[in-house]
Amino acid sequence: MIGRLRGRLDWRGSDHVLIDVQGVGYIVFCSERTLAALPGVGEAVSLYTDLVVREDLLQLYGFSSMMEKEWHRLLTSVQGVGAKVSLAVLGSVGPDGLSRAIALGDWAAVRVARGVGPKTAQRIVLELKDKAPAVMAMGGAEAIEPADTGGDVIEPAVTAANAPAPQSSRSAQADALSALGNLGYGPSEAAAAVAEAAGAAPEAGEAALIRAALKLLAPKG
C-alpha cells in the first residue's frame, strides 16, 4: 500500500498531478481544494495517498492531510459514493466543512458538490454522523515538510490557501469533544454542539467551546 508520496511536482492537470519520486512518475488524483493548495510545477510536494486496486484499475488519490484522507475513506464506504464524488465533496466543503455539515446534520451543505443529489447527501450525513467525532478530533490539515528530492528545490510558499489551521484551534475542539463525552453526552450530539460553537467563534479556546456547547445542549423551555 502506498500511503504517502514525497517528490517534485512535474505536471498539474484539472483533477490530477504527476509527481516525480526519484525518477518514477506517479499520477495522483486530488480534490480541487487540495490541487489549489499545492506548490508550483518544479517544486517540492508531499501528499498522503490512498491506492485503489481493482482487476482493471490501479489508481492513486492524494490528500493534504490525514483528516482529508480519512474522510475520503469514509465517504467511499457510503452506498453510491465513489472516489470521484468523494473528491467533489471534499473539494467543495473541505474536511472541516464536511465535519461540521455531518455533525450538524446539514445535508444541504454536502449537496453543493457536483454529482451529489439530495438523497446521496442525506445518506452521507445519516451514515457517517456517528463517525464524525473521531475524524473531527484528528484536526485540520497537518503541515507537510518539503520532500528531499536530491536537488535544488524551492520550498512552497505558505499562503492563505495552504496554511495549516492553528494547532490551538484543533486541540480546543478535540478537548471540548472529549470533555463533553466525559460529561455523558453522546458522540453525535457533542460533535454537533462543538461544531456549531466553533463555527460561531473559530478562535475560541477549549473552555469557551465547552461553555458554548453546553448552552446549546441545555434543555430548551
UniProtKB/TrEMBL annotation:
Stretches assigned to the Holliday junction DNA helicase RuvA C-terminal domain: 172-218
Keyword Ubl conjugation found: no
Gene Ontology BP term (one): DNA repair
Principal location class: cytoplasm
Region (Domain I): 1-64
Keywords: Cytoplasm, DNA damage, DNA recombination, DNA repair, DNA-binding
GO function term, MF aspect, one: four-way junction helicase activity
Residue ranges of every copy of the DNA helicase Holliday junction RuvA type domain listed in the record: 1-62
Region (Domain III): 168-221
One Pfam match: RuvA_C
SUPFAM superfamilies registered for this protein in UniProt: DNA helicase RuvA subunit, C-terminal domain, Nucleic acid-binding proteins, RuvA domain 2-like
Domain remark from Swiss-Prot or TrEMBL: Has three domains with a flexible linker between the domains II and III and assumes an 'L' shape. Domain III is highly mobile and contacts RuvB.
Name used for this protein in its record: Holliday junction branch migration complex subunit RuvA
Gene name as annotated: ruvA
